[in-house]
From TrEMBL:
Residues 8-137 form the Transposase IS200-like domain. It comes from the Bacteria. This is Transposase. PANTHER family: TRANSPOSASE IS200-LIKE DOMAIN-CONTAINING PROTEIN, TRANSPOSASE, Y1_TNP DOMAIN-CONTAINING.
Length: 204
């Protein structure tokens, strides 16, 4: 079996997964809400989230794994701390979601194709392009005529001033403010072909 490099503390990653054989993961709006609730339960305590998009048969997140103190808090016993890793928490998320969906829709078998894929984000320019790419995905796949109309991404949460668990201010600072963030998305949505080669390897 091919070994996957572990997710390392304090590094940024694009993580993604999809339905087995491209099967639909989210059949109705409440399924999207369930996935985000489970994400907040299992993953958010151990990773900061900068962007996400949930599509009918796949998901994307841009995260930074928290430092060792967050991954292994002192109040845990030594044995309990050994059971904590971001990979394990991502597995708990997928297993809990699959179990709920299988029970709700009386289905059997594997729901998701594999564990979360990952690609390290190693430059500032890649970070900004990846935020856009994640938000643009629904339009890229022909699900909607304008990415900004998709309800299941972080695009509008980052623009808003309401309460959020996203790293909103860090994202906006990276882009240079709300207006620069919005304009970057609009410009690249109109010229996606120029940015697509820079995201090669980011799947699905």
């Amino acid at each position: 079996m091919q070994q996957t490099a572990p997710l390392e503390p304090e590094k940024y990653y694009h993580i993604y997964t999809r339905g087995n054989n491209k099967e639909t993961l989210f059949r109705e709006p409440e399924n999207y809400l369930l996935f985000l609730q489970l994400y907040r339960k299992y993953v958010a305590p151990y990773a900061e989230t900068f962007a996400y998009c949930l599509l009918p048969n796949h998901v994307h997140f841009l995260v930074r794994v928290k430092d060792e103190k967050a991954l292994k808090p002192q109040w845990l016993t030594e044995d309990e701390a050994k059971l904590i890793s971001i990979e394990r928490q991502l597995g708990h998320l997928l297993n809990a979601f699959a179990k709920t969906i299988n029970n709700k829709y009386s289905r059997i078998g594997r729901l998701l194709q594999h564990r979360f894929g990952r690609k390290e984000v190693s430059s500032e320019s890649y970070f900004t392009r990846l935020v856009f790419y994640i938000h643009f995905n629904p339009q890229h796949h022909g699900l909607i005529t304008s990415f900004s109309g998709w309800q299941h991404s972080s695009y509008h949460s980052i623009l808003s001033e309401g309460k959020t668990s996203l790293q909103r201010e860090e994202v906006l600072t990276w882009f240079g403010g709300r207006e620069a963030y919005r304009k970057f998305h609009e410009k690249n949505a109109a010229d996606f072909e120029s940015i697509a080669p820079l995201i090669q390897g980011d799947v699905p």
